Amino acid sequence: MNLIELKGIQFGYDTQQVAILDDLHLSVNHGECHCISGATGCGKSSLLHLIAGELSRPLDGEMIRHPALMVGLVMQDPNVQLLRQSVGAEIAFALENLGTPSAQMLEKVQQSLRRVGLYISIDTPVEMLSLGQKYRLMLAAQLVFEPNLLLLDEPWTQLDNHGVQELYFVLKNLLSDGVAIVMVEHKPQAFGKLVSHLWQLDRGKLLAGLYLPSVPHGHKLNIADTIEIGTAAEERVRIAPHRFQFARRDILFRCANTLTISGGEMVALVGDNGSGKSSLLKALAGIQADIGQLPLSVLGKRPKLGIYGANVCLLLQRPSRQLFEQTVLSEMQFSLRRFQLPLARAERMLTELGLTHLAAASPHKLSYGQQHIIALASLACLKPKVLLLDDPFAGLDSVHCEKVWQLLLQLRHQGSAILLTSHREVPLDDVDRVWHIEAGFLQDKSQSMVLVDAS
Amino acid sequence: MKPHFELQDALFIGFCATLLVVLKSMLRLKLGLSGHSMFLMTFFYLLCYGAVGRVGCITACGLLAGIVAMMLSVGKGGPLILLKFGLPAIAMDLALLMIAGVFKLRWQCVIVALVGCLAWASKGWVENMLAGMTQQIALTKFALNFVQGGVFAVGAALIVPTVLRRLQSHDLLRDHHKNYK
Amino acid sequence: MRVKPRRGFVAGKWHRLGGVVSETHACALALLLSILLSSAAFLLPSSVLWVLVTINAGLIAHGLLLKKKIAVLLRLAAVQFVTTMGLYSLFHGESQLLEGAIVVLRVLLAMLPGWWLSSTQRPERLGEVLSWGLPHQWAFVIAASLSLLPFMSRELQEIYQIQCMRGARITPKALRNPKNWPEFIYCVLFPLLIQLLKLSKQMAISAKLRHFGDAAKATHWPSTRDHK
Prior knowledge:
- The structure holds 3 protein chains of 3 kinds.
- In chain A, strand 8 and strand 9 (about 205-210) form a beta hairpin.
- By secondary structure, chain A is α/β, with parallel strands linked by helices.
- Chain A is built from 12 helices and 20 strands.
- In chain A, helix 2 packs parallel to helix 4, helix 8 (about 330-340) packs across helix 9 and helix 10 (about 370-380) runs parallel beside helix 11.
- By secondary structure, chain C is mainly α.
- Chains B and C meet through helix 1, helix 2, helix 3, helix 5 and helix 6 of B and helix 1, helix 3, helix 4, helix 5 and helix 6 of C.
C-alpha cells in the first residue's frame, strides 16, 4: 500500500533564496526502509518535517497522503523531545492527546516499551536513562500510537555502537511488521541490509545512491613532527590509580595504572555513552562536583575552577552554547581580552582556518559545524598548555571534522597536551595514544598492546 | 491566562517563569536589600513580552512563576507568593496596554518596570495597613521599598532592550515584531 | 504531576483511587486553610489575635515534627521586627512600640501558614490542586517546565563554568561588584535564553507530533508513581 507520495515538491525558507527542495519525488510503501544521505544543511531534516506535516511554510508540488497514514518522527537529540518526568508518562503522552481511556493506557505503554526492547519499570525517571535508552524511549513514545510510517533523523550520530546495534534489531522487527521507515543518515552502512532504498539529496533532488563527500583524509599524525623546543616531554596531566565514582553511587570505572599526558601529545579517550568520559574531563578541569578527592594533577596542581587562567581550556559537548558575542571575531577575542593576550591572534586563527569571511557574521547564524569550529578556535587561540575536549567530532560532517583535526594537530605541534573523548573508536594513527573505558576499567590500551607484543 | 498562545510561546513563557524562580532561589542575595527580586522579575517579564510580543504574556509568566515557586517551595512559600509574582505582572501588562507603541522601547521598558515596582511596593503597603501599621510608617516603608525595588527594576529594564536587540540580530526571535532596531 | 484520576479507572484499583482523591482533597483543604489563616492575620481584631497565635503554634509544631527548617522564616521575621520597631521608635517614640510589635506579629502570622503548607504538602499535589482550574495547555506547560528543571540547572551550571574558564568576570567574588552583573547576563543568561528559545520550539514540535491538542478532551495517564 502506498503511504505517501511526493510529486515535484518545491520549497524554500526565503523567497529570494534558492529552493531547498526542488522538484523532489518520493514514494513510500509499507515495509520499505528509505535512507536519505546528503551534505549538512542540504534540507534533509526539512524533508522529514515536511513528510511529518510539520512545516508551516508554503510549498509547491503535490503530496498525496494515504488516509490511514500515521506518522511518527524521532528528531536528532532525544533530550529536547522529552516532555515528562517518568518513562510511563512520556510514552502515554500521545495516548492522552488522542483521548485514549486511562484504563487502556498501561497495557499499550508496556507493549511499546517491549517493542523497543526496553525492559525497565514505567516509573523510572527519564533522567536516569542513557542516551541510547532515551532514543528508544522516544521511539516507544511514537510506536504507542501505532504509526505506519516512522521518520528518523540521524540516529547513528547520536548513538554509540552499542546503541546502534540495539536500534538495528528494533527497526528490523518494525519493518517485518509492515511499518515503513524513512531515515536521514549519512552512515547507512550501520543499518546494512535493512535499507531497501538508498537516496542522496543533491541540490533539492533525490537521486539514487549514497552521498560521499570528497574530503581528503589529510590529517595523518606525524609522530616525528618536531615540537617547539622547551615544551616537549613536560608532564602536563597525571592520573594516578583511583576509583572514579560519584558520592553514594556505584563505581563508574577503575583506573589501575598511572596515566600521563605530556606537552605535544594527543590522547583519545574512548568509551560508550555514560561510561564517565565527560565526568573525567570535568574532573580534570576541576568542575565536576560529587566525586570527592581524586589523585588527579594538571600542571602540577590539583584541579580547581579558576586557578589555571588561559593555560587549561575545556570544550564541552554542544559547544555552540558558549557563544554569546555579536560577531565571530569578538567571540574569538573575548578570552584573549580577558586574559590580556594579543588580540591579533584571533584574526590570524581565522585566516589559518580559511574562515575570514565569517569574521563579521553573527555566531548564531552559522551552521552547527561552523559554530563548533568557532567555539574550538576561540579556545585554540589562547594556546593553552592543556586542552580538554568532550566529543569534539559529535555531529560533525567530514568537512568540519577535517577542520577540527587541522586545529588539533596545529596545537599539538605548538606543544599543547590534548585529551579528547569519543564515543566511537579513534584510529591509532590519528593520535599518540588511545585510552579506553571498557568493562569498568580506564586503561591505556595502546600501551598494554605494546607490552603483549614485547612479551 | 488566555489559552490561545501558540504552544511554542507558551512553553517559552513557562521556561522563563521557571528560570526566574530557579535563579531567585540560587542567587538569593545576602545583602538584606529587599528589592533585588524586582531585578529578576522585571528582567524576565520584559523579556517574555519582547520575545512573545503579546499583551497578556507578562501576566501569564507572573502567574506561572507564582505557581512554580509555590510548588518548589521557594521563598516563603504559600499562597502569598502567587500575589508577589502575579501583582507586578498584572500591573505591567495593564501599563503596556496603555502605553504600547507610545514611547521608544527603552523608555517603555523603564516605565513598565516602574509600574511593576509600584504594584510590588503597594502590595507591601496594603499588607502593612491591614496589619494596623500607622499611616506614617507604612508610607515610609512603601517609599523605601519603592526606591530600593525601583533601582533594581530600572537596572533590569535598561538591560532588556540590549538583550532583545541581540536576540533579534541573531534571527532568534520570530518575525512578528521588528521594532527593536 | 497534574494527573487527575478520573472515574472509569480499572475496577480493582478503586480503593487506591479513593486514597488519591482524598489525599488531593486534603491538599486542597490545606491550601484553603492556609489562605484563610493568612487573611485572618490581617483581618482579625487584636483582641482575638491570641486564637490565631495558638493555631499557628500548632502549625509550627506540626512542621517541626516533620523536621522542616524554619530558620529562613525566623531570620525574615527578625529583619521585619528590627526595621519596623526602628521606624516606630523614630516616628512615634516609645509609647507605641507595642502597636509596632503587633504589626510585626500580624505579618509573621500571615507568612506562617504558607511555610506550613509548603513544608507539609508534596509539591506534586500542590501542582495538581493548582492546575484544577487551568486550561490543558497551561497545565502542560507547567509540567514540562518542571520536568525541564534538572536540564535547566545543569545547563546553567555548565555554561557558567565554561565561561568562567574562558575568563569571564563572573566568579562569586567578581559578582559582588554590580558592574560585573551585565557580564553574567551576556555570558551566561543570554546563551541559556537562546537554548530555551530553541528548546521551546523543539518541544512544541515534539508535542504536536504526538498529537498535542488534537482531541477535544485529553485523558490522563494514571500515574502509578503517586501511590508509593
